[in-house]
Amino acid sequence: MKPVYKFIVVFLILGIIAWIIYFVVSKTNTGTGVTTEISATTTEGLIGENKGILAESTTGTITGQNDTNAEISNEENPSGAVKTSFKELRKISDVPAQFYWYYAENNRIFYITKTGEIKKVIDGKSEAIALNPLSNVSTVRPNRGGSFVLLKFTTDTGTMWGVFSSMDEKITPLNSSIIDAVWDFYNENITASLSNGGKISIVSLLREKNYSENTILIPEIKLFDVDMVNKSPNELLFVEKFGNEYATSIWQYSTKTKLFSIVRSGLLDFSLNPTLSAYFFSSKNDGFVIGNSSLERYFPTTQKTLPEKCSSVLLTAFCFVPQTSVSFFDWITNSVFSNDSLYAYDLDRQTEDKIPISDITKTQIDAKNLMPTASSLYFINKYDNFIYAFI
Amino acid sequence: MKNKKQFVGQLNTTIIFFVLFFGFFSSSYAGNPELIVTWRADNFYPTTYVGKAIPSSGTKIYVAIEAFQDGKLLDISKSVIEWRKNRERIQQGMGQKETIVVFNENDETNFVSVSVGWNGGSLEKSITIPVAKPRLILELPYVNGVVPKNTDIAITAMPYFFNAKSFSDLSFSWQIGALKRGTGSDNKIIINTGNPSVAIDRIVTINGYIQNRRSLLEITRTQTKMIIGE
C-alpha cells in the first residue's frame, strides 16, 4: 500500500475515534451536565423508579436495589389497600407534641413533647421512655418505617445530632462536626454535611459501621441554607430553603458521574415536601403541584394547598386543604391558622376525591406533619399541637 | 526502510494534527463556568421555623461561592476572589470562597457581588439579599381569631429575625384591652375572656411589644384582634 493511502486510512480511523468520543461525551453531558430542566418522567416512571422501596414503605424493612425498569401496578400494590374513608378521629398523644413518627414494625407512635421528653403510645396510652429529656429539639427525621430517627438537639457542649433507635429506645450520638443530615435513598445510611476546619464536605455515614465511619461523596462544597434530598440512589438535590419572596434555586449532584447541575432557579416562595411516591411542592411560579422527582407536574389537582399539608403512602396521597387560601410564610410562622378539608389522590388512576370528615368530627383542623399508613392517617393539629389520627 | 520512516513521520504528523483538532473541538464544546452564591443570615428565630432566615439591619450574613463548568465543580482555591457590597470592595484574596456582609440602615441597596479570576479572565455574579425589619408574630390559634367566652386563652409572641441569641435577650410586654403587662423574657400570656378589664368589648385589640436588649433600636409592636364568641 502506498504511504499516502496508509496516511489516509490512519487519519480516517482517528477521525472516527474522535467522532465516537465526541458523541459519547456529548450524550453524557446532555443527561447530567448543566441543564435548566430535567426531562419529564411519567407517573409510571416515578413509581417505577421507586418500586422496590415503595413496596417496603409501610413495613419499615429495607431491601436492596430498586428496579428502575419495572412498573408498579394496582395488582402488585393496590392503592385500594390504603384506607381512604374513615369512621373516627382519635386523639393519640396525651400532651401537645413537637414532632412524632410512626414505627411501622410495632405499629406504634413515638413523639417528642415540648419539654423534650420522648413518649410512645401503647394501646392508646402514652408512656415516657427511659431517656432524659432533650433540649431544643429542632429537627426530627425518621427513616421510612420509623425504625431509626435522626435528631438534632442541644447539649451543654452545643448542638449535636444523634440517631434514635425505636427498637432499643436509645440514642447513638453522631460526629460532632455534622451540620445537616438526611437518610439516604435506601433508608440505611446517612447523607451528612460535615464541617472540618471551615471546609464542608458531603459524606455518607455507614450504618454497618454504626455511623462512625464515612465515605466521602463530595470532598468540598459550601452551600448555605440548603436542604438535602436523596432523589435517587445516585442523585442528591440541594434545595435552597424557602425564603419569603426570595428566589430559590435547586441543584443536583450525581454521586455516580460526579457532575453538578442546575435543576431549577428563580422559584419564588418555593417549598418542597418530597415523599417516596410523589413530590409535593409549590411556588408562585407553578402554584401547588403534585409532581415527580424531576419537579414536573404529573398529577392534575383542582385544590390548592401547602406541600406540608400532604403526604403519601404507596399509591395514595392525602392532602389537607385550607378552605381559604393562606400564604406559606404566614402559615409556618403561625400568623394564620387554617380550617382544612381532606382530599385523597389515587396516584395511579389520577383521581381526586374529597373525604367527608365533617360527619366524623366538629373539631377544626389545621393539619401538619401527615403520616398516612395503610389503615390510618396521623397528623398534628396546629390548634392544640396534639397528634390525631383518622381511623 | 525509507518508506517506514516516511510513514512514521506521517503518522506523527497525523497524531499531532488529531490532538490539535480534538483539543480545539473539545475546548469549543466546553460550556461557560457558572457561579453559585448562597447565604445565610445569623439571627434569631424559633427552632420550629423551617424557612430561610431573612436578615435585618445589622445582621451578619455569611455568603459563599462555588463554581462549576460542564457539571464539574471547579477548584477556585487558587483564584483571586473579590467580594463587593453595594459595589464597595469588602474582601479580596486567593481562594476566599466565603465572606461576611452586614447591611445597615444607611444602605440604600443590598447588592453582594463577587468576581473570581479564572483562565485569565473573571467570572462575575451579583445577588440582591432581601433585608427586612424583625417581625413579631402573635399566635392566636383560633379560626379568624374567634375565641370562646369565659375561657383562658394563651397568646404567644414569636420573634423572627431579631439580632439576638436567645429569648433571654428579648423583652415582651402587652396591652390587651385595658390590661397592660410586661412578661420579661416569657413570650406567653394567658388571659381570661371573662375578665372585664380584657373583655371591654366583643372585639378585643391585642398589642404585643418586643424589645431586643442587645440592640435597643430593635423594638417592634404587632397588633391583632380577638373576637369573643358566644
What does this structure look like?
The complex is a heterodimer of chains A (391) and B (230). Chain A is mainly beta. A 4-stranded antiparallel beta sheet of chain A has the order 1-28-27-26, with no helix packed on it. A 4-stranded antiparallel beta sheet of chain A has the order 2-3-4-5, with no helix packed on it. Chain A is built from 4 helices and 28 strands. Chain B is mainly beta and 230 residues long. Chain B is 12% helix and 49% strand. Chain B has 1 helix and 16 strands. In chain B, the strands form 4 sheets. Chain B has a 5-stranded mixed beta sheet with strand order 10-16-15-12-13, with no helix packed on it. Chain B is elongated and about 115 Å long. The N and C termini of chain B lie far apart (112 Å). In chain B, 30% of the residues are buried. The chains are: A mainly beta (391), B mainly beta (230).
Shape of chain A: globular
Unreliable segments of 5+ consecutive residues of chain A = 25-45, 57-79
Number of E-state strands of chain A: 28
Helix content of chain B: 10-25%
Largest sheet of chain A: 4 strands, antiparallel
If you average the pLDDT of chain B, what whole number results?
Answer: 89
* Broad structural category of chain B: mainly beta
Oligomer: heterodimer
Radius of gyration of chain A: 23 Å
Largest sheet composition of chain B? 5 strands, mixed
Category from helices, strands and their pairing of chain A: mainly beta
End-to-end span of chain A in angstroms? Answer: 86 Å
Morphology of chain B: elongated
DSSP strand (E) fraction of chain B? Answer: over 45%
Helix content range of chain A? 10-25%
Strand content of chain A: 35-45%
- The largest beta-sheet of chain A arranges its strands as 1-28-27-26
How many strand segments of chain B?
Answer: 16
**With helices defined by DSSP (H or I, 4 residues minimum), what is the helix count of chain B?**
1
